[in-house]
Amino acid sequence: MVGEAFSVTVGQARLAGWQAGEGLPVVFLHAGVCDKRMWESQMAAVAEEGWQAIAYDRRGYGETVSADEAFSHVDDLEAVLKALDIHAAVFVGCSMGGGLALDFALRHPGRVIGLVLIGTSVTGAPWSATDAESQIEAAEEDAFERGDLDMLNRVQAHEWLDGPRAQSGRVGGAVRALFMDMNAIALAKPALTLEERSPHAWTRMAEVGAPTLLLVGDEDFTALIDRHEHLSEEMPNAFAAVLEGVAHIPSIERPELVNSMLLEFLDAIEGGDDEENIDDTDD
Asked: Which residues pair with 282 in a beta bridge?
């Protein structure tokens, strides 16, 4: 565990989180196949450099417990910020966590100091797949329809940790064990059927003016790499970089690389140099 544990009650849910450090807040939002543990290395690095690091498990993940009631992930995020007395923050999101950060930014632009989005979801974004990607998606659907959660977890580890075009098992050891554990917990949770979806954000990306660091792994899905390029052009204050040799969860696959880029971005924001250091070019 990084720092101190906290919990926030929203409706019939108890959202479980960690916080560490003091200073300007950085809120970490996990991917849909992970939980807050995917950010342990980043939280430790941020706290050590004088920022306040916060991460929590959304409903349906990790240590959070929730009934099947009407809810909104954006409302839950607002409740966490209120409980921790945070008005504005930098939001770091991967995949679905990035989509949540963007939904929050569109609702509360004045509360977003900056964004770091990794292989991000965007509400309402298009999706396409190559033949190789479609084959692994078909294997995922088959495991889901048969209710084989162990097989589903293995297929999703191939999809999201190794990358859909990479050899299954490309990423091993403790990193794979962590992914499998995080995702197994999520897969075993009872279904939440009453989520209130956010409005489509895909056509509104030009409205997100906060300084933004866009990252994507070159082993990720083709649609996410294409999305990354589109966002780098649409978002007015975005800097984009492609990470070589990693897939969808670089925070655990290449934590030192993600930490260094994150800290450089935070230093630019803290120094007030965002206009000079963050531009709309694509590496």
From this structure: 240
Residue type, 166: A
C-alpha to C-alpha distance for 221 and 133, rounded to whole angstroms: 7
Rounded distance, CA 183 to CA 189, Å? 10
What is the per-residue pLDDT across 163-199, written as a single tens digit (0 to 9) for each?
999 999 999 999 999 999 999 999 999 999 999 999 9
Residue-range domains of the chain with CATH: 4-125+193-277 (3.40.50.1820), 131-188 (no CATH)
98/235 Cα distance (integer angstroms): 14
> What six digits make up the tokens of 152?
């589903």
Is 98 within 8 Å of 29 (Cβ atoms)? yes
